[in-house]
Design brief:
The protein is of the alpha/beta class and 277 residues long. The chain is built from eleven helices and twelve strands. The strands form two sheets. The protein has a seven-stranded mixed beta sheet, with helices on one face. A hairpin with an 8-residue loop joins strand 3 and strand 4. Helix 8 packs antiparallel against helix 9. Bound molecules: zinc ion (2 copies).
Length: 277
């Protein structure tokens, strides 16, 4: 591939090592693009693999490198998008051009991925860490992945991922999805909940494992977001990979996730939004 994926100075500053995915399970790995995770579903060396989310802008080359290191030169069968926020689809266009594979998203997310609609502007007073860190990566053009993006089937199945199903988890965005595998109760949660306090820039880099609600600045519908967290907690996941933060598993995950589900208003909803809630 001709490398048009020029690096920002920030890119170099925060990520000095070569791109390599970290393994969560033998068939699930992730790679962190600055502070947003992309998921790799498939065993190392397999030609049957799927990419989940596309990270922030300027990371296509690294994501391709991490994929090649894990799977060899074969492209993924597809790319699944949990939701269309810029920090999850920033490198989508370059990845789609490189791999030339279909991208799948929830039908309610399609308008945001085909240039028809933009997400509402959030309440910047609850922004802080995330906003300031990501500001160099904010997109300047509306996203249009029309050439590659297809709506996911309504019945919860996912093309090329036989064992997995989608869980519609709106609130953070209208068409937000999580991916779930019943066999071992593995969850890819997107931003429905995350494991780092996204509003604190320190926590983003120290990366404590702790379950938190969705990133506050970007979440317009807290009622739906609460229902979605309750839905995911009810699945009692054993392992979870989230859009931000480190993966979590076992009792630690289950206790903290149910704690968040039952105390969502206190723990997740910013004070300003509680009043208008
Ligand atoms: Zn998001
Ligand atoms: Zn995010």
């Amino acid at each position: 591939m001709k490398d048009q994926d020029h690096e920002l100075p920030q890119d170099r500053y925060y990520d000095l090592s070569h791109a390599e995915a970290d393994e969560v399970l033998n068939d699930l790995a992730y790679y962190r693009t600055l502070m947003v995770n992309v998921g790799f579903i498939g065993e190392a060396g397999s030609k049957d693999w799927v990419l989940v989310d596309c990270g922030i802008n300027h990371y296509a080359r690294r994501i391709i490198e991490a994929g090649e290191k894990r799977f060899g030169p074969a492209p993924p069968k597809a790319i699944i998008i949990t939701h269309g926020h810029f920090d999850h689809i920033g490198s989508a266009k370059k990845l789609a051009q490189h791999y030339d594979v279909p991208i799948y998203a929830h039908p309610k997310e399609m308008d945001y991925l085909t240039g028809k609609r933009s997400y509402p502007v959030g309440n910047s007073t609850v922004g802080g860490g995330l906003i300031s860190i990501l500001s160099p990566f904010f997109p300047t053009d509306p996203v249009n992945l029309k050439k590659w993006v297809h709506p996911l089937p309504d019945d919860g199945t996912i093309p090329f991922l036989e064992e997995w199903r989608t869980i519609h988890t709106p609130g953070h965005t209208p068409g937000h999805i999580a991916l779930f595998r019943d066999r071992d109760r593995t969850l890819i949660a997107g931003d429905a909940f995350i494991t780092v306090k996204q509003e604190s820039s320190m926590a983003v880099f120290i990366q404590h494992q702790h379950v938190h609600g969705p990133p506050a600045y970007f979440t317009p519908d807290w009622q739906e977001a609460e229902r979605s967290v309750k839905k995911l907690a009810a699945l009692n996941p054993v392992t979870a990979l989230t859009g931000h933060g480190l993966p979590m598993d076992g009792e630690n995950l289950q206790q903290q996730l149910s704690h968040l589900a039952f105390n969502f208003k206190d723990l997740a909803i910013p004070n300003h939004d509680k009043k208008i809630h």
